[in-house]
Amino acid sequence: MYLIRLFCLRGASAARTGHDRGGSMPVLSRLRATALIFGILLASAGAAWAGMGQPTPWQMDFQDAASPVMQDVADFHFFLLWVIAAISAFVLVLLLICIVRFNSRANPTPSRTTHNTPIEILWTIVPVIILAAIAVPSFRLLFVQLEIPKPDLTVKVTGKQWFWSYSYPDSNFEFDSLMVPEKDLKPGQLRLLAVDNEMVVPVNKVVHVLVTGADVIHSFAVTSFGIRMDAVPGRVNETWFKATTEGVFYGQCSELCGKDHSFMPIAVRVVNESEFNKWLSGAKQKYAIDTSAAPRALAATAAPAIQ
């Protein structure tokens, strides 16, 4: 910041000097100062173009992939960037040719040609080929996202106003996950992303995620896993991921769901199988669902009616 301030002051001083002398010096000085500031900002970004599991300051790309699906999404994205760049470059070349060769001075007598069969065939066939080249990997990616492999673990995610609940139906327990307030953050915890209870899954295992909503529409999204699924009340949607890297991966609700929409983050901790089994045994005791509580409560309310 000191360097940026210094360049701003220097640019302003040069601009005043140029203004006193007259001419275009103020404009050149401002442009020079702006270019320097922009260069410093880019240099400060450095290697922080992308991160894994969490957003990075000055991030210019997707978060690093931590699942096969996200890797496919990133590969398709970069393939499309090359296609877009080639099309844009081709159109730019055509525009430059038209500007240089067919302006009124270079070409005072314009051509009266109205039809050109080879060109008309080309501009029909080439776009079809491009669209087909895009459609094939696109459909493949859709099938990969929608066809769920045989799961090793099932987790039910319920979006609520404004937090998430995670249920492990195979182990019969459920817990809520709320954002840690800023005043309670511990060293290393991320503001607006850290939660009190993380969703824990084993590495290199297929996790089948059932997503629903308890009140309004939410959206369960974790960028590094390449998943995003709406949580709709009264409906159960499904998605999946297979985390290939251990660590903590963050996401957020991606559907406007009310006043605290921006305060319901997602935190998924990926651990090795032995650590997961250890956590699972403790979670079964800590978050166990009392299946007998509901029948007892129902009987207690029904008893006076029978009398």
Characterise this structure.
- This protein has helices spanning 2-21, 25-45, 68-101, 117-146, 273-286, 293-306, and strands at 153-160, 163-168, 173-177, 199-202, 206-213, 218-222, 227-231, 237-242, 247-253, 265-271.
- The chain is built from six helices and ten strands, in the order ααααββββββββββαα.
- The strands form two sheets. Strands 3-2-1-5-8 form a five-stranded mixed β-sheet.
- A hairpin with a 2-residue loop joins strand 1 (153-160) and strand 2 (163-168).
- It is elongated and about 90 Å long.
- With 307 residues, the protein is an alpha+beta fold.
- Helix content is 43%, strand content 20%.
- The model is unreliable at 1-25, 41-48 and 297-307 (pLDDT under 50).
- Among the domains are: 2-45; 153-286, Cupredoxins -  blue copper proteins (Immunoglobulin-like, Sandwich), CATH 2.60.40.
Question: What would a concise description of this structure say?
Answer:
With 307 residues, the protein is of the alpha+beta class. The protein is 43% helix and 20% strand.
Detail the topology: elements first, then pairings.
Elements (H helix, E strand, L loop, with lengths): L1 H20 L3 H21 L22 H34 L15 H30 L6 E8 L2 E6 L4 E5 L21 E4 L3 E8 L4 E5 L4 E5 L5 E6 L4 E7 L11 E7 L1 H14 L6 H14 L1
Parallel strand pairs: 1-5, 4-10
Antiparallel strand pairs: 1-2, 2-3, 5-8, 6-7, 6-9, 9-10
